[in-house]
């Protein structure tokens, strides 16, 4: 039985509903995470590990993200966390890990731009990474449908985006220049950069095994400065092995602080 037929039987997803490149990218992502070298190897792994079926299903049905997803988190960042960092230092470094097609880092960049306009002595750099090269390419392009911008008010839409003739919106240069997009595998064991003030990795670890989640928490801990912030997804959690590495800063919004 082919891998595609197995996916349709086990995962209950019709591959024909998706672009072939999309299916391949998602399978390759799971292959990297499970350390399977060939499609054949992964096919066997899928049958031998029932839990992988759910991981693959999640990977194939990832919801398209949007700007300022979970607005309460961004309110906390805007009103509390970023101003607090700016009061203590003139240079702030943020890592958006698993940034997909760029909606999250651009949301951070809008907050950063507003803060830097209010505090001229502060500079903010955002490092945005993902394992999916095609997703990074789209993020660098910075062109979005109106539906993913529904949480952006009209004032900010005019200020930070260019309305195109095709109905889409393009991120303006003053927001683009705050972000450094890079390809990066979170399972590499090496952070994209160290001495960070904040790491945002949201709605990514839900597709990882417990060991991978723990390894990732250790990776972020090593990359952050003391008292640096770790912003998780609303449904994510720290495993018992690593919960001592961070203290809760805001439990409702799943923001932690490095111990």
Protein topology:
Layout: H1 3-10, H2 20-34, H3 39-48, H4 50-60, H5 71-88, E1 91-97, H6 103-118, E2 123-130, H7 133-141, E3 143-144, H8 154-160, E4 161-163, E5 169-171, H9 173-176, E6 179-183, E7 196-201, H10 210-223, E8 224-232, E9 246-250, E10 255-258
Parallel strand pairs: 1-2, 1-7, 2-6, 7-8
Antiparallel strand pairs: 3-5, 4-5, 8-10, 9-10
Task: Please describe what this structure looks like.
43% of the residues lie in helices and 20% in strands. The chain is built from ten helices and ten strands. Strands 6-2-1-7-8-10-9 form a seven-stranded mixed beta sheet. Strands 3-5-4 form a three-stranded antiparallel beta sheet. α2 crosses α4 and α3 (39-48) packs across α4. The chain is globular. The termini are far apart.
């Amino acid at each position: 039985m082919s891998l595609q037929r197995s996916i349709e039987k086990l995962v209950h997803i019709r591959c024909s509903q998706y672009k072939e490149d999309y299916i391949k990218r998602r399978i390759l992502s799971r292959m990297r995470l499970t350390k399977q070298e060939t499609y054949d190897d992964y096919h066997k792994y899928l049958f031998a590990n029932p839990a992988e079926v759910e991981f693959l299903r999640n990977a194939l049905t990832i919801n398209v993200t949007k700007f300022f997803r979970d607005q309460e988190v961004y309110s906390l960042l805007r009103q509390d966390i970023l101003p607090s960092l700016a009061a203590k230092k003139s240079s702030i470094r943020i890592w958006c890990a698993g940034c997909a097609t760029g909606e999250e880092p651009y949301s951070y960049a809008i907050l950063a731009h507003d803060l830097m306009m209010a505090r001229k002595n502060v500079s903010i750099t955002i490092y945005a990474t993902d394992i999916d090269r095609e997703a990074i390419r789209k993020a660098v392009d910075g062109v979005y449908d109106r539906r993913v911008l529904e949480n952006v008010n009209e004032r900010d839409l005019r200020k930070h985006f260019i309305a195109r003739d095709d109905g889409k919106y393009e991120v303006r240069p003053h927001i683009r220049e705050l972000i450094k997009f890079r390809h990066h595998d979170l399972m590499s064991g090496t952070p994209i950069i160290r001495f960070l003030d904040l790491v945002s990795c949201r709605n990514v670890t839900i597709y990882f095994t417990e060991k991978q989640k723990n390894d990732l928490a250790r990776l972020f801990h090593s990359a952050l400065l003391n008292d640096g912030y770790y912003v998780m997804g609303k449904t994510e959690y720290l495993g018992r092995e690593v919960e001592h590495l961070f203290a809760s800063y805001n439990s409702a919004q799943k923001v932690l602080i490095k111990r």
